[in-house]
Specification:
single chain, about 260 residues, alpha+beta, 6-stranded antiparallel β-sheet, 3 helices, globular
């Protein structure tokens, strides 16, 4: 009995040492879980790491128009095979406790979350789990669209004052790799669309429709307004992500598209 009483202080100390931190951790988890909203966002692309970064890292990108977000708010779900990296829905966990978060990573209305693979992506294909679609692969220097397209279908539509109004005027398919590189490079230097009020030239409604096709089987569609602000819309979005009128080169993108059309 005396020996048992001798162990009592140690038992109490152990309960204090283990129990208090465990209680705090459980309390924090309950506090966060009780004030959290969890939703799922479909992945739309992956981005390769920059030179010098861990080659196993990969950024999963998705449309995000909600303004700022918190570090750690998103969580990527991936599984790996010898031939593919399957990307599941991105978990968006927003906590209602605490202050607001700064606007992080919302250029071109996109957000991203990093993940570390077991081995570098290499020649494996990134595939979206929900529908089996191949995801675009952005290089470190790609911004608006990925490089490496092997075909582009370009159409030019007239303005409201043309006959017929907004009708198709010209179309072409570009397969020359040099021309395709020039086109994707020109798209990738267009600045993000600036919010707020700013001056734009007169807009007659004319525009280009550009479909970039990639060897992996995915495609990117862009609408580029030929006049006005030169707004650029990506994949059918109703709000622009970039604008040629805000670029230092002005109308060079429109001139390049007209040149590829033989205008």
């Amino acid at each position: 009995m005396r020996a048992l009483r001798g162990w009592v202080p140690f038992g109490v100390a152990a309960l204090v040492i283990v129990g208090i931190p465990l209680g705090i951790a459980l309390g924090i988890h309950w506090y966060q879980a009780s004030g959290a909203t969890m939703t799922y966002v479909q992945p739309e692309a992956v981005r390769l790491p920059k030179a010098g970064q861990d080659p196993r890292t990969l950024s999963v990108e998705f449309t995000w128009s909600g303004g700022g977000y918190c570090f750690g708010e998103f969580q990527a779900q991936v599984s790996e095979t010898a031939t593919s990296v399957v990307v599941g829905p991105v978990i968006d966990r927003q906590f209602h406790h605490g202050g607001a978060c700064a606007g992080v990573g919302t250029v071109y209305d996109r957000a991203s979350v990093g993940v570390t693979l077991r081995t570098p992506l290499g020649t494996r294909s990134p595939i979206r789990r929900s529908d089996g679609a191949f995801l675009p692969i952005f290089g470190p220097g790609d911004f608006l669209v990925p490089g490496g397209a092997d075909r582009a279908a370009i159409q030019r539509f007239g303005g409201l004052n043309d006959s017929p109004p907004l009708g198709l005027r010209k179309s072409t398919v570009v397969t020359n790799l040099g021309d395709l590189a020039d086109l994707t490079n020109a798209l990738n230097v267009q600045p993000p669309y600036r919010q707020g009020e700013f001056y734009c030239p007169m807009d007659d409604g004319s525009y280009f429709l550009v479909d970039l096709h990639y060897p992996a089987g995915f495609a990117e569609r862009l609408r580029v307004d030929a006049t006005g602000c030169g707004a650029i819309y990506l994949n059918g979005a109703s709000t622009p992500v970039a604008a040629t009128a805000q670029a230092r080169d002005g109308g060079e993108l429109s001139a390049l598209l007209d040149g590829l059309l033989g205008a």
